[in-house]
Amino acid sequence: MKIWYQLVSSESGMKHFLQATQKLCQDAALPDTAVEVRGTSQGALGDQFRLFWNYDVREIIDNALQIRKTGGYDAFVLANSLDPALVELREVMDIPVVSFMEVTCFHACTMGEKFGLIVPNEKMVPRYREIPIGYGLKDRLATVEAIEFSNIRGFDAVFTDEKLGDECIAQVKASARRCIEKGAEVVIPAGPHATLLAMRGIHQIDDVPIMDSYRLLLKSAEMVVAMKRLTGVHISRKLLYQAPSQDYIDRVADVRNIDALRRS
């Protein structure tokens, strides 16, 4: 199978993070799985601010629509933890669209009653609180705790500078302990620090599981593709993910001049 693994991070500004995540995922993949870890052209310049975030989301939509038109992939993985264009893409994609936050939050519920999130900076806390509450998991969310990376691209250096990596890990451990103090039985790192933790083999802090988020996401995508092959089904087209008709899509493609939506 072939999986498009979409991060928001810039392919030039966060190349070391993307390379590390590519190796992590490919090493975890089944022998017949090819994983393409991709970023965006300018992403994560300030995705804690929703105005800037919208520009990154549009590029992700464009990537997915091109795959919809040309094919070649068995799953589209939203490997960013803010659920970029999740509903929008599930409405139109005919392959599974797999979400970082859905996978990690619901898997955490199989590991313990309450989970905590570790996010890149304080500004992101309200948004990350909204997402699991939107899944109906308000009573399972213990807390959202931040580390201190207001400039998201500053994360890239933690993959090449051991001292900076150590400092990042120390911040993560402190945040994880705050999560645990507030009742978390599982901790989810949401951001590039998840790759750093996995690279260093850190899977528990004070006997509490620290989720290996990106590899879990890859394995979940493999499972969803396998189930689609077994059953022919990967999504409900009732209500939330109801798809527009092809005639409607053609009309919008013409009005909006969206070539990727046009029939081949």
Automatic annotation (TrEMBL):
InterPro entries linked to this entry: Asp/Glu/hydantoin_racemase, Hydantoin_racemase-like, Iso_Racemase_Enz_sf
Molecular function per GO:
amino-acid racemase activity
Give a single Pfam family match: Asp_Glu_race
Q: Which domain of life is it from?
A: Bacteria
UniProt similarity note: Belongs to the HyuE racemase family.
Q: What is this protein called?
A: Asp/Glu/hydantoin racemase
Write down the species: Allopusillimonas soli
